[in-house]
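Journal club side-thread
Mid-discussion, someone asked how the predicted structure for our own chain would compare to the paper's figures. Pasting it here so we can look after the session.
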Amino acid sequence: MPPAPMLPPARVAFAVSGDRAAYRWQERTYAGELTAILPTLEALEREHSPRWVVAGAAAGLGHLVGLGIRVARSWDVAEVHRLIAGGWRADLGAAWATVHDQPWPAAPDNPERRGEATLFDVGESDPGEAAAAPARADRVPVDALPTNADPTQVGALAELIDEVARRQYVRLDAFGPRAVATAYSESAAAVLALELERDGLPIDRVRAEELIAAAAGPRPRTAGEAAAIRAARDERVLRHLPGRRADLRNPADVQALLAAAGVSVPSTRAWVLEPYRRSHPLVAALLDWRKDERIATTYGYRWLDEHVGPDNRLRGAWTACDGAAGRMTARNGLHNLPQPLRPAVAAESGHVFVRADLGQIEPRVLAALSGDPAFAAASRADDLYAPVAATLGVPRSAAKIAVLAAMYGQRSGAAGAALRGLERAFPAAMAVLDDAYAAGLQGRSLRTFGGRLIQLHSHPDESPAAAAGRGRYARNAVVQGSAAELFKAWAATVRHELRPISGQIVLCLHDELLVHVAERHAEAAVATVHQALTDSARRWVGAEQVRFIADVKVVRRWDEAKNGGISGS
């Protein structure tokens, strides 16, 4: 029996191959030149707001997003495949094989498969008949069509994408409505990733130059000047041990330098050195040097010139999912911009940022996925750790350590004693973590609250320590992965609700959103962010027992959020 179609709104399956494209709308397929089809697609979005079904957002919707078309709804076969099958690989061949319960084909970048036709047996049989035929592992579509594909081939690809999406929907629907809702928000996050890359993050170039100069020195005009500036930066460390020279970029040299200063350490990693900061001025200077060196070498003038455009926007590629954890990631400093450079992230004239950071997200997610009534009750407080501390009869700091230790698998020391109290007070929440740990030990795969598969495998010759490490990973992954799903559901809702005031999400950083909006709409944007969290959490959890909170501030520069911002909420 063929799988049931996806629920309303109506869908448009869309495929692109070079300058050819095809779309399937109301059970009919249309194909032709991409430039000729785009106006029709824009009209479909404007008049019907359909759910766009694509193999992947970048290839399928990149042209629409590039034209400034705001795609409201989508079904991203690649992102949905990552939910169903886990991991990173999500080409159309793997997605097709999964929904047909077939072995995956060789990966698209396998040299042995390069140059092959990518729609199975194109030209040898009718594409419609091929899609309906019994699944065979040697008839799997592997990637995109050749750039010279004809309209019939591209039309067949659009029909194939539609068929895979239908089967994905049926499979997720069997998991429950939350899994389908997660597919929708994951697909929306993939479109948001395209918009983030298109629009960029506003940068005050002048301020950025000043901050880089403070860390890396003035912009060098010649190679000689660059070498002199580098030597001067090194000298700020070496002067604390006169007569000793060392290559500060060589860990062995640095370790020997520290030993000469009486600081014996097993490695030169920052977290190892930090406790010794006050023991000798050399250590403090070295730690400060590393921060400056990182800016000089990775986020210096070259980075500024290459990645911040003439419109003063920092751009980089975004992904909606990093694999098992499910978090959004970005390149070119968008996800790891050094703290000293954050003052350069500045709203444009007449605009402000609304910065929103989810509070205590992982323990609140644990309360949701476990259904523990006592832990859910603790989540009603602004500070979840306070009622937990009162229940356990311990200081708040001890309660926080205990909850984090439970999620990260630490069972020794002070955390171990507090964990026993947690197990008595919140048995359902702790049982979820213990069950995940047991699955990790045994190499049994898990699913997050939203249905994402967390692949786990055991090895016959592995050590007990390796199995325990996998157990600790599973314990946290089931919570962290679920938290990432809630974050993206929230971000997708904020993106949709900001439309009337032309607000724009310009950064997604772990549990934090940065919204760029006209100053006159700041209060409306703050209200939107809060309401979107309430609404998306209610839909995601399916109830209101667990409370989710966000610290929301209006700021002109990103770093001002820690200082209270223009106005708090």
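Post-session note: Residues 464-497 form the longest helix (34 residues).
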